[in-house]
Amino acid sequence: MDPIERAAEVRYTRADGLADVLRGADALFVYDFLSTAVPGAWHAADRLRWVHIASAGVDPVMFPELRASDVVLTNSRGVFDGAIAEYVLGVILAFAKDFAGSLRLQQRGEWRHRETERAAGRRVLVVGTGPIGRSIARLLRAAGLDVTGAGRRAVADDPDFGTVHASAVLADHLGHFDYVVAVAPLTEQTKGMFDAAAFAAMKPQARFVNVGRGELVVTADLIEALRAGEIAGAALDVFDTEPLPPDNPLWTMDNVLVSPHMSGDVVGWRNTLVEVFTDNFTRWCEGQPLRNVVDKQLGYVPSGGNR
């Protein structure tokens, strides 16, 4: 933050003090991207012109007053793409090679020979065709997997996915894939999109991976689908309630991999988030176009790709 501190008055605060420091502020950097404090302090934003959030997802700040205002919203799109793609490839390999089963056997000192699966040639549906979804598609294709996308609009010749299906008819396509990866932005249209009907439409051998938002999934329906054998497993990095409650059944299911919302958090990521804001602050001061401007009606940064 040093370059910004030299150029502007910077006020640091925790959530409970946000309203006090927001008065008279021109810009707000929401560094705690999971915080829900901004709506409650919005009444104090008497001259605010720009909000930047240190995440790709913007749902914590997509409340009606901000949507209706002239305040520009930007995000940190691009920081997490490669790391999340590596996470997705990692969990697919973990399922195919049964690494979790090997670790359990190792901890018991049990030598049990098994056969595992090939990852190459498996069919993957990536639901969400923004930059993170595209990075996932490119890496999985390089590893030999057959990747298709699902986004806001259908496309027949997408450069990263080949075919993109329309999310509106997602259930018609879920049954054709071995892995379904959720990385869509959280909007009114995507909230709860993976429910009992969606899981019932998948193959019993399919695995579900969520690196998008926890609220994309109806958690109770996912648990029931796993228990009933409607799907073969899940790798979950995000949840509708975080931290995941200790009594949640997902913790103890052998066919579930749980990680604490960290798929994109690699060494140095916190500094990189500040660097993105610093770059945009320089652009803002110089009157240049800002990077990663969010369409507040869509809920994400529009681009040439489908969402």
Automatic annotation (TrEMBL):
Domain D-isomer specific 2-hydroxyacid dehydrogenase NAD-binding, residue spans: 90-263
UniProtKB keywords: NAD, Oxidoreductase
Domain D-isomer specific 2-hydroxyacid dehydrogenase catalytic as annotated: residue spans: 18-294
Top-rank lineage group of the source organism: Bacteria
CDD domains: 2-Hacid_dh_1 (cd05300)
Molecular functions (GO terms): NAD binding; oxidoreductase activity, acting on the CH-OH group of donors, NAD or NADP as acceptor
Family the entry assigns: Belongs to the D-isomer specific 2-hydroxyacid dehydrogenase family.
Protein name, entry field: D-2-hydroxyacid dehydrogenase
Species the sequence originates in: Amycolatopsis suaedae
